[in-house]
Specification:
The chain is an alpha/beta fold and 279 residues long. It has a single domain, classed as Ribonuclease Z/Hydroxyacylglutathione hydrolase-like (Metallo-beta-lactamase, Chain A, 4-Layer Sandwich), CATH 3.60.15. 28% of the residues lie in helices and 19% in strands. The strands form two sheets. A seven-stranded mixed beta sheet has the order 1-2-3-4-5-6-7. A five-stranded mixed beta sheet has the order 8-9-10-11-12, with no helix packed on it. β9 (155-161) and β10 form a beta hairpin. α8 (211-225) packs antiparallel against α9. The longest helix is centred in the C-terminal third of the chain and has 15 residues, at 211-225. The radius of gyration is 17 Å and the shape is globular.
Amino acid sequence: MPFKCSKPYPHPVETLCHRPWELAVEPFQVSPQTYYVSGQKWVGAYLIDTGDGLILIDTGIAESVYLLVDSVYKLGYQPKDIKAILLSHAHLDHFGGAAALHALTGAPLYMSKEDAQFMEACPEETELPHDLWHVQHIHIDRFFADDEPLTMGNITIRTMLTPGHTIGCTSFFWQETNPETGETYSIAMHGGVGANTMNDDYYRTSRYLTPDLRQRFLDDAEKLKAIHVDIALPSHPNQIEILDRVGSYTHRTQPYLDSTVWADFIDERVRQVRALMKP
């Protein structure tokens, strides 16, 4: 299906902190070995079955961790099967549940060195103190390196530093094989594309992020678009609409397979960033 995005949910923090069941969604498969498991509709989290342990990408906030853990169980896995937790960037809506999940699974936490430093230097911009949600501090065990892929079982994840939304925002690329057809798919999740941190109003108050990160994001767009991606996964499911096909996956139908989505998604995020730039 072609690229489609949708409006974000109103008041997601208040809803997830007080009434998380209102944003709940059952776990669902998106590719031969990957499942959407955040358990909620605001921020995505993905579980990859490598055949030799599970990799979790992002965690949501602490208040929604129980939905993520429930998703893992519903898929027939155990939390202890998670062997690595990859964090796309240093914003609490993506790493807020990492402390609890690290304690539950023992899995090491991965993040870029750039964002780990950002998190330590500017908790007001990364942990995003809020009257509603709980901040649970984390320690990063291992850093991403673009020239050092992470291999587990039959999955190799290549990371790419894609700054803009944060200084160390990291995107993930890997391949999976369809067990019924033998086809190989290239899968990607961009680490963060929010224009809310790539505008002049934000830069005026930030102690760490500067307009050169926005320019880096814009400069990188063509390079990213040139990467072939068969299945594009969003870090927020409204950024690439995937919830409209919950439960429809089969190895034969491949409802998320569309190699045009990735480039269209990048173009749309560039458009949104440019729309906020002062003339």
